[in-house]
Amino acid sequence: xxxxxxxxxxxxxxxxxxxxxxxxxxxxxxxxxxxxxxxxxxxxxxxxxxxxxxxxxxxxxxxxxxxxxxxxxxxxxxxxxxxxxxxxxxxxxxxxxxxxxxxxxxxxxxxxxxxxxxxxxxxxxxxxxxxxxxxxxxxxxxxxxxxxxxxxxxxxxxxxxxxxxxxxxxxxxxxxxxxxxxxxxxxxxxxxxxxxxxxxxxxxxxxxxxxxxxxxxxxxxxxxxxxxxxxxxxxxxxxxxxxxxxxxxxxxxxxxxxxxxxxxxxxxxxxxxxxxxxxxxxxxxxxxxxxxxxxxxxxxxxxxxxxxxxxxxxxxxxxxxxxxxxxxxxxxxxxxxxxxxxxxxxxxxxxxxxxxxxxxxxxxxx
Length: 366
Fold this sequence. Notes:
The chain has 366 residues and is an alpha/beta fold. It has helices at 98-101, 115-124, 141-153, 168-175, 190-197, 201-214, 233-246, 272-284, 298-301, and strands at residues 8-9, 13-17, 20-23, 31-33, 43-46, 49-52, 57-58, 61-65, 79-83, 111-112, 129-132, 157-162, 180-184, 218-225, 253-257, 290-293, 303-304, 311-316, 319-323, 354-356.
């Protein structure tokens, strides 16, 4: 079945010439002639206005553990309904989800669901939250926001997994409805961003500061460490010191392993020792919660009290093996508060991955 475009109006654009308009959603500022798409693929100049062509369409829905986003201090152990669309506003040569984020085929978007249907499905399956992920939700801004609002009506939280490459005005609207975010801080080097992502570092840093200081959105960071590109001690020290100085020590940092993919298939995978070294540097510079990812490392996956060292949350991959937090989120040994969004007991979803379909009766009208 051939998928047709789903057109939805947008507001972050303006006319610049008689035959071109500029998309103002992200710092890329794509200048589009009639019929032309932005680099993200799903925002398009149609009849002199930018439209979103993927509203209500998804590359698939799946229930995951929240730790897979990764979020370790936001309702640990809970289930999250995850979905994405197609395209991306970055051009990462190392993309680990390239089959969706680099897709230029509308047939990627075979699943169709309204914001209300997504919220109902999440509630029916006992999901604590919905995650906008797989590709960057910034580019399906309107769909993500409407879904977050529908989720809020049912007490379902919203999670953005994003590179944070977004302009100030749409950023304010977007994060006003997000309850948590994991932002990819891909490097702390402008040359890396320019060469390997086609973007710039400074707008990402501004997004991080905005989320942390101007919103109630819980924030965690992820850095994919690529051998020979962003894994030096110097860069890791600079990055983690910046986080402590500008965001504070309580923002969790995840250091995850690269595997050869997309346009960097000749680059070797990240050695586990690199992740352990990065975690050590982060804690040395004052980060309270630093984690390793994409490798089996129970020590690096677990949460410890930054004051006395007690293991507060034990993890084995995505399974919680130990829980010592008090009902009010404190260490039972020394009473120190553990930063995060916790309930009295952890969720019990475990490591399951459950693909789901939106029920026929809840789909949009054809």
